[in-house]
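Hi U.,

Before I forget, here's the chain from the pilot set. I'm dumping it here mostly so it's searchable later in email.
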Amino acid sequence: MSDLLGRKLFDKTILYLQRSLGLRTLNQRLISNNIANVHTPGYIPKEIPFQRLLDQALEKAPGVFLAKTNAHHLPNYPEEHALLEPIEEFSPPPTDEEVQIEKEMAKLAANNLMFQAEVQALLKKLEALKITIAEGR
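Structure:
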């Protein structure tokens, strides 16, 4: 789905969940890479600044737009709004310690739980949207 369509159709919660799920997927890959390299001599684990990247992505996200159907309507958004840019490929800085498998497994489990919770929240929002559409017929 394009970001422009998403901004017009969905509220900020859905946009937040969309961005967060993308970052959690990236985080899962990064943690898995750390775990895979647990026995690699000299490998330094990497972390993603999750909250900072999510905040950065959401700062660029404007609110919901309404259509201007009459020339006398006041616009609720600038006529020239920029599309959201995709999050750039992130190269996380290394930490100063070797991989600790227990720590990485705990991070992986926490990330997975948050991912599952966000998927459930997204499903609830989409179900509410489906009900709204069905009742509008």
